[in-house]
Amino acid sequence: MKQKSKVVLEFNKIIESVESFAETETGKKEVRKLDISSDIERVNYLQNQTKEALSIIIEKGSPPLGGISDVRDYVKRGAVGGIISQRGLLNCADTLRAARLMKNYVLLNNKEERKYEILEELCQTIYSNKDIEDKIYSIIISEEEIADDASSELKRIRRAIQIKNSAIKNKINSIVNSSTTQKYLQESIVTMRNDRYVVPVKKEYRSMIKGIMHDQSSTGSTIYIEPIAIVEMNNEVSNLKIEEKKEVERILLELSLMIGDIEREMIDNQQLLTQLDFIFAKGKYAISINAIEPKINDKGYIRIKNGRHPLIDSNVVVPINVWLGDEFTTLIITGPNTGGKTVAIKTIGLFSLMGMSGLHIPAEYGTEISLFSGVFADIGDEQSIEQSLSTFSSHMTNIVKIMKEVDDKSLVLFDELGAGTDPTEGAALAISILDKLHDRKIITAATTHYSELKLHALTTDGVCNGSVEFNVETLSPTYKLLIGVPGKSNAFEISKKLGLDESIIQKAKSTIETEKVEFEDALNQIEKNRIYIEEKKSEIDRLSSESQKKHADFIAKERKALEKSEKLINEANYEARKIVEQTKRETAEIIKELKKLNLEMNKDKSRRVNELRQNLNNKTKVLEENPYTEQIFEEETYDTTTPLKKGDAVNVKSLNQKGYVLSDEDDSQNVMVQIGIMKTKVKKSDLIKIKSDDEKNYNAKTSRIIKLKTTSISSTIDVRGENLEEALMEIDKYLDDAFMSNLNEIQIIHGKGMGILREGITQFLKKNKHVKDFRLGNFNEGGDGVTIVTFK
User: What whole-number distance in Å separates Cα of residue 68 and Cα of residue 423?
Assistant: First the structure.
């Protein structure tokens, strides 16, 4: 019955939604195992998992779980000395990289106030080995290709194959182009059969071309012959290819054994990454439905604040507020059909299942969910034609099972309890079932149309009425759930709105017992009072909000005015300080120039100049505390943090003169400084380290060189006629220069020829750190004779 209730409440659809956020197949399998727990410590742990995943995703973005594969079979093969396929080795490297990135994602760059205890504990034990990663990536280029540099032997063999193939091509081309041979050929071309070079010979001239026949055309008019002159050369290539295959197998075995040596670590990683994928799937799902972590209790208390059913479109779902299990243990919800009663009790049940499985729920903070030994639900029309059961019988069959299986820690949900039979008997039966559960203090929520159940809730302690709101004016439900207010049938009001004759309505009222009429009228008055109170409350909230907004606006404007005033004052001080500093610099330059020109100046005049300079310094002293003073000095400084040492270029702030440090500081924090031809002791605090003239000249010269170099780079390089080694050296240097010049795309002209240059350049470009992509040229770009390169 518990499993059936999960289906009725559509918990399986929640699982499917969470599964869609898992990145790996093993993670998806883990999500599919998700189940509820009644252990409060276990549930709190699962909730904390989801909370940490949600928080770290918000802080750092999505976790790097891409590229993870199930590598257990590959690892086991390597552990027993078997050869892992190239695809398998790449999967192992991808998984190792994902593990390392995942570890860094969780453990690095965390804010001090952030703690991810569960995730950090899991990631601490993740095994990473970048050396193995890099080795596999450097050797295996793709599922079909091994790098030439995988080993020196492989490089030698492939180089020998290239040389032999080149010699074969030259030899066979000379045969094909020979005037004595051409008349025997069907076409003047060279082709391949069984990995050997052959020429197409006309059938009637078979005996004129000495060699081995490998194939013939479908019509039999053409025979493909390997000329005897290149048979031995082809044999040598075949032998080299056998050697190449053996060397590749040796390299793959070496890599496989490396993976096999870390079998235990790789399998442990697989389990950890699966668990992390599962946890992050829960976190991503929580973000997708704007969910929060509910409070968890084991007392049977349910408090849902603005809960939204997760399977209803977020744009149309109406939030509900409901509480149960504290002041009362039984909730009876009444109201019209399609008014939202069923959605309300489904939300209660589904939220309970989600909370007990460690999932966050789409509601507001303050929502609380209880743990139950089981959630039982009888919801919807489950009439069984095969068993010849009526709707009432089908529901009663479920209810009988529920009543047998429930215990005092269960949650029970009934939809339209007692419906499908005589109203009087159905209402009496429903009250009896609810009383039985109520006596056992089992948390129960039920929907009904029966007025008898409304009255029962009003007169029984621990039982509470609830209703879904209905707007009689628009004849439509609002889907709002009201606790403590019994629902009204509204049959007479709806009929009247739809135009039914008043006399018919009055006669219908007369047939109802007076007590029932008075009860319905009382409900009507309660509903009117509730609506009036809510309207007044909304108006009070609106006025309060407007008042707070106006107050906040006033405070903001006042703060802005103060900030503007302070800014104007500071800017004025700053400008004044700049003017004074400029004047000081100009004065110092004048004095320096006078000394340089050796103008006649007697002692009195020299003293007068010093007095004037001191007077200027005194006038600017007032501005020394200006908050921008330090900024102005720093505009020309080279370094304000590195300690001063002998030979450093400095600026003496009090004199605004440049000089050089001659000695270390003494006990009085003074250092000897040379200013021009004068040596003097000054306070270390009065000095700021600056760039020397040599440094400035060097930086300027370097900038000019770089600028000249980067502006003169062409977007095309031509290496035709060069051998492969020379071409690659030239291209390597050119790519660096082109990348520094911010070129997006360049062309390498290598010509068509035998294809050696093209192939060598292709292998080189695959490994270049600056290259994002490359391709052969289009027809209008030079075709196979040109390679187009795009930079990162």
Answer: 60
Rg of the chain (C-alpha set): 44
Two tokens, residue 404:
């047998």
C-alpha torsion sign, points 491, 492, 498, 500: positive
The H-or-E segment that residue 789 falls in is strand 786-791
Phi-psi region of 300 (alpha: psi -120 to 50; beta: other; left: phi over 0): left
Binding residue numbers: 335-342
3-state SS string for 273-304: HHHHHHHHHHHHHHHHCCCECCEEECCCCEEE
The Cα 149–Cα 157 span in angstroms is 11
Question: For residues 408 and 430, what is the distance between their CA atoms, to the nearest angstrom?
Answer: 19
Q: CA angle, corner 767, sides to 764 and 771, nearest 5?
A: 95
Q: Is 360 exposed, middle or buried (0-12, 13-18, 19+ CB in 10 A)?
A: buried
CA dist 697 and 66 (Å) reads 51
- List the binding residues for ATP: 335-342
> What domains sit in the chain, N to C, each tagged with a CATH number?
2-129+262-288 (1.10.1420), 151-243 (1.10.1420.10), 295-510 (3.40.50.300), 512-625 (no CATH), 636-691 (2.30.30), 697-791 (3.30.1370.110)
Count CA atoms within 13 Å of residue 650 on its CB side. 28
State yes or no: pLDDT of 343 exceeds 70. Answer: yes
- Alpha-helical runs (H) found in 597-687: 603-620, 629-634
Output the pTM of the full model: 0.60
Per-residue model confidence (pLDDT) at position 248? 95
Q: What are residue 276's phi and psi, to 5 degrees?
A: -65, -40
DSSP for 301-327, please give it: -EEEEEE--TTS-TTTPPPEEEEESSS
Sign of the alpha-carbon dihedral angle for 335, 290, 45, 353: positive
Phi, psi of 476 (to 5 degrees): -145, 150
Give per-residue pLDDT as tens, 653-712.
Answer: 777 778 888 888 887 788 888 887 677 888 888 888 887 665 655 555 555 554 455 456
Better pLDDT: 564 or 633: 564
Q: What are phi and psi of 325, to 5 degrees?
A: 100, -10
Residue 229 has pLDDT above 90, yes or no: no
CA 373 to chain centre: 37
